[in-house]
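Thread: "does anyone have the structure for this chain?"

Original post by V.I.:
We have the sequence but no experimental structure in hand. Need at least a predicted one for the grant figures.
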Amino acid sequence: GSVFKRQDSPEEVRPVRDIRLVPARIYTQAGWIVGKLHVAAEWRMLNFINNVPEFFSLADVILEGRPKVIPLFTLQRSAIQFIVVENEPEKEIEAATRNQIEHPVSCLLQNGVLHGVISVLRGVRLSDHLSRQKGFVLVKEAHFQLRNPWEKRVIDHREPVVLLNPQSVVG
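Reply from O.Q.:
Generated one for you, tokens below.
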């Protein structure tokens, strides 16, 4: 729940949410963005990213190819291709996969490919699920191969969980 914090006068009381700083690696059309998301303590990352405004803030950000730390950075949610979940992937997976069937997928992105497993409710076709999806989807056993335009190399990496923006998928 919320805790209350006393302001200047005793009559002025406002709710303050418990916030956790979640380290995240975010892949965008412009490359990687590394920073900390301000997430309400009780929210899973998938709920957070699907409910933030179109532009939201990150703290202590490093942009790919630039070593300087930016204290506060505003990011456009639709520019995100996927987010690497840095903490407690089991919590994300458990809540998202009850009563569902797993489907292996390969997604063509602007600069590479993301392979993994997407869980879909029983009785729903994967193509229908993805075409009607309004927010990010959880991809388990993620394996991505991305061309890095900054260093002219391919990143070949695996993560237990990523949050994928279906709007960024080419095919």
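V.I.: this helps a lot. The CA atoms of residues 113 and 145 lie 5 Å apart.
O.Q.: and DSSP finds three helices and eleven strands in the chain.
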